[in-house]
């Protein structure tokens, strides 16, 4: 599944619902589905608030399923992250003016099995998340 949408905050819910519908074919538990939806919300919110600084642009979302693993990629073409290690620290935020908690990456890391973050300053950020659905029938 490939999806692109405008970086307005209202589209965060659209992204959540779309990925949830896509993941449903794996028959995840309610907890697994909530984990996926929350991780997507965090990644999309980061793209909108931090990547684009609330400027309107495009967010790209891709999801694939191989066997019983869903892979979700959220990508922006925004400002990028200058210090990825610092950005991954719990409670760090590049937007303290918005009273952000700085827990986005920490939450994503907790909810998925694997996460990769690639970022280039002035080019954008790509977050790849993988989650194994424990009791699903493999889908190819």
Any guess at the CATH architecture? Answer: 2-Layer Sandwich
- The CATH homologous superfamily corresponds to Histidine kinase-like ATPase, C-terminal domain
Task: Write down the Rg.
Answer: 14 Å
**Can you tell me the overall shape?**
globular
**Class by helix and strand content?**
alpha+beta
How would you describe this structure to a colleague?
- This protein is α+β, with helices and mostly antiparallel strands and 140 residues long.
- It has a single domain, classed as 2-Layer Sandwich (Heat Shock Protein 90), CATH 3.30.565.10.
- The chain has four helices and five strands, in the order E-H-H-E-E-H-H-E-E.
- Helix 1 runs antiparallel to helix 2 and helix 2 packs antiparallel against helix 4.
- The radius of gyration is 14 Å and the shape is globular.
- The chain starts with a strand and ends in an 8-residue tail after the last strand.
- One of its GO terms (molecular function) is sigma factor antagonist activity.
- InterPro entries: Anti-sigma-factor_SerPK, Anti-sigma_F, HATPase_C_sf, HATPase_dom.
- It comes from Desulfuribacillus alkaliarsenatis.
- One of its GO terms (biological process) is sporulation resulting in formation of a cellular spore.
């Amino acid at each position: 599944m490939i999806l692109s949408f405008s970086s307005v905050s209202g589209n965060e819910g659209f992204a959540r619902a779309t990925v949830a519908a896509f993941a449903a074919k794996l028959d995840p538990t309610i907890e697994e589905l909530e984990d996926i939806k929350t991780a997507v919300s965090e990644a999309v919110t980061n793209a909108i608030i931090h990547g684009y600084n609330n400027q309107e642009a495009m967010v790209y979302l891709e999801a694939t399923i191989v066997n019983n693993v869903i892979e979700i990629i959220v990508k922006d073409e925004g400002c990028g992250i200058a210090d990825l290690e610092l950005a991954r620290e719990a409670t760090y935020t590049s937007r303290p003016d918005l009273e952000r908690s700085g827990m986005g990456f920490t939450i994503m890391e907790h909810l998925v099995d694997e996460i990769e973050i690639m970022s280039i300053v002035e080019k954008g950020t790509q977050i790849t998340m993988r989650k194994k659905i424990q009791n699903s029938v493999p889908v190819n």
